[in-house]
Amino acid sequence: MHSCDRSYNVPTWLLRMIPIIIPLHPSGGRFGKNEELRYALRSLERHFTEPFKLVIVGRYLPAWLKGAELIECRHGLKSALKLAAEHYPEGFFWVYDDNVLLADRTAEEMKITPGKRKWGDPETGWSRDLESIRTRLEGEGIEPIDYSRPHGPYWFDKAMVDQGFEDWPGMKGKFPWESWILSKWKWPWISGVTKQLYGDFSPPAEHHVYLNYNEAGTTVELREWLHARFPLASRFEREVPKVSTSGVEVHTIRFGDAWWISACGDSLDDWCRRHGHGLRVWDKAAIHPRYPTAKFCVLDMLESFLAGTNQWCFYVDADVYVTDDAPTFPDMPGIRGMVIRPDQPSGATPGFPKFCEKHFPEQAGMANGWKYRNAGVWVCDRQAAAEMLRVAEEPYINAWQEQHQWNWWLVRAAAAGMAVTTLPDEWNRFGLEQGQAHFWHLAGKNKAEMFRKVRESLGILEPLCATIDGAESLEALVEACAIEGGDMMSIPEEEAESHPRLNAALTVIPEIDNLCNGAIGHLLRCLEFGKWQRLIIRSTPGAQPGRRRPRRTGQPFPYDVEHAGILTGSPLRRVALDGKTYLVYER
């Protein structure tokens, strides 16, 4: 530990309930659903030995979070820190959600901030900003300590924050102001206590007090390690009920990191939470190897349902988006048996009769006149579940995943007397269909365009407009969106992550259809925390660039540029010009 010239004691009232303030980005983090925050909170509850209150500064509280105060902030980190200091002028811990506490710490111990005298090479814009801080501190005769790279946690009060920004008014966004503020106060620091993961996973050592990771470090191995280290939910987690209080239990399959899994999964979780429906999420580990595709585990869901006491089993595909105002389980007169909608208005699917003739030639006639059903959302009572399991015989055949065989089992169960009731379309409305719905099914390959249309119909996303501010050409669009000092530029994809002009630009038009994950993240972070006011990107609706992997992180790509804006909550306008679509993000 290193000494400082300043003596500071935590006020008595703070020792009773110390504010821990966490800035939260609206994107939900690399894991999605703010999972980083979940593990940060579990670590604090386990290892921080003082009573504390949780404060989030950001646009909203995650749906699963409870017992936290929100300081609403729609701007970057600089504004967030200033607001935090105004709300808690006597002092608070400033903690990032990608920082995990690994050992017991009191408030006084945690005030001793991780830092180091050795400064890294200025290879990025952020590190060059850090280098400028060192130069200025040395010019003022102050010993420069790098508090920024270890990533905290930090103790600040209003006097510290005010002085730091008054002395350097040009600091903006993700500028590493921690080193500037704390070095000027000669804050106590300690080195060698933070394990940082900026690539492949390796476990922390016994002497490590903190664990910090960036996007490149958010590997599957890290996530598994965090869950094993902190398996118990904190008091701040509002868990989706596993035991139903409504007589309805909901089942879904969910694995992978596609953007729509997170978006749809969050909406289903919220619906179950609102109405007290127990939810079981089946992941990849739960899929029996005898099944040709994952969705055949609906048979295991039915068995699990019958092993309990609930009245209804409600199945929902992973690509179903539930609206915020969706009511509880549909109360329909005479509802019984298997409740499921036709796949098409006519109920006809040409491939199904051939499937029956090929695999069940002696019984195929049973399917004549059958109205083919969609297996994305269905509800059944206990009698129907038992009947479906009775007729669900092997071999299991992959044809439209389980849907052809599911319909064959429905045919047989209905012939044996099982009631089949039509589920109203609003409980399984396909994404490109007209009409209102509670459950929107993004079935098919073009989930991007369907999700956009659904959100547009809900008033979440502005519709495609012909012009913006009267602009009828790309040049006019740039002129309408530009502000004084703005810059229009084109950048090749391979330079998108590290282009030196990005931090100075106010308007950017990459002349490419889609960017890799790291580039999109960098562009949106520049918009959120940097100097830009607007960002314009050309987009190809429905493009699926997600199968590509960025060179640096090796992580799968979760969304295209349009969904990056949707998931970060950035205000977005879509503009059609010269047969192309441009996405205009505004701060």
Sequence-ordered SSE layout with sheet pairings:
Elements: H1 12-16, E1 18-23, H2 35-47, E2 52-58, E3 68-72, H3 77-87, E4 92-94, E5 99-101, H4 107-110, E6 113-114, H5 125-139, E7 154-156, H6 158-167, H7 177-184, E8 189-190, E9 194-197, E10 210-213, H8 220-229, E11 248-253, H9 259-275, E12 278-282, H10 298-307, E13 312-316, E14 320-322, E15 338-342, H11 351-359, E16 373-381, H12 382-391, H13 403-415, E17 420-421, E18 429-430, E19 439-441, H14 447-457, H15 474-481, H16 517-529, E20 534-539, H17 561-568, E21 572-577, E22 580-586
Parallel strand pairs: 1-2, 1-4, 2-3, 6-8, 9-10, 11-12, 11-13, 15-17, 18-19
Antiparallel strand pairs: 4-7, 5-10, 13-16, 14-19, 15-16, 20-22, 21-22
Helix pairs in contact: 3-6, 5-7, 6-7, 10-12, 12-13
3D structure, described in words:
There is one protein chain. The chain is built from 17 helices and 22 strands. β1, α2 (35-47) and β2 (52-58) form a beta-alpha-beta unit. α10 crosses α12. The protein is elongated and about 90 Å long. It has helices at residues 12-16, 35-47, 77-87, 107-110, 125-139, 158-167, 177-184, 220-229, 259-275, 298-307, 351-359, 382-391, 403-415, 447-457, 474-481, 517-529, 561-568; strands spanning 18-23, 52-58, 68-72, 92-94, 99-101, 113-114, 154-156, 189-190, 194-197, 210-213, 248-253, 278-282, 312-316, 320-322, 338-342, 373-381, 420-421, 429-430, 439-441, 534-539, 572-577, 580-586. The longest helix has 17 residues, at 259-275. 42% of the residues are buried. With 587 residues, the chain is α/β, with parallel strands linked by helices. The strands form six sheets. The chain has a six-stranded mixed beta sheet, with helices on both faces. Strands 3-2-1-4-7 form a five-stranded mixed beta sheet. The chain is 30% helix and 17% strand. It folds into three domains: 12-197, Spore Coat Polysaccharide Biosynthesis Protein SpsA, Chain A (Alpha-Beta Complex), CATH 3.90.550; 248-441, Spore Coat Polysaccharide Biosynthesis Protein SpsA, Chain A; 462-586, no CATH class.
